[in-house]
Amino acid sequence: MDEEGWFSVTPEEIAARQARWCAGAGVVIDAFAGVGGNAIQFAQMCHHVVAIDIDPKKVALASDNAKIYGVEDYIDFIVGDFFQLAPFLKGDVVFLSPPWGGPSYKAKESFTLDLLKPKDGHSLFQVAQAITPNIIMYLPRNVDLLQATALSWLSSPPLDVEIEENFVRGNSKGITIYFGDNIFP
Predict the structure, then answer these.
(1) Hey, is 71 helix, strand or coil?
(2) To the nearest whole number, what is the mean pLDDT of the chain?
(3) CB 74: neighbour CB atoms within 10 A?
(4) Is the terminal CB of the chain with fewer CB neighbours within 10 Å at N or C?
């Protein structure tokens, strides 16, 4: 891992729980794969993963990490911009854990979706929604829940929503919001 990876990777037990939600899914797209923590867990539970990151160093680290876990054959790593690639992607689930702006997100009383990078949460969700209605978003623990869950109304009919507060050793680490019906063979 690199320095950024240590604070940006999803804790393993949380990533495993997120992967269980879509167990059996055909293809999971990890739009901001970073060092591969989520992609590895998805590869253990689903048939195939497309892991995308704009940083070639992160993709190399993710590939190395996948080899350590023995799942490299189940993941296609792509160096690229999710927003440019999205119109060409097909998948059953899109996982979104975009950059939160580093550790400074904790200083905000309420983290709003416009603070996500490289684009705001609404734009990000709409791009993912063009691929599939089954979307997982991993967001800061101080995210504005009303604003985040309102994304379900961008679909007609609105998507089912499940909210999960994520803890590691009793400490709140983030919020996972599951959109869609999560019914996979």
Answers:
(1) coil
(2) 92
(3) 18
(4) C
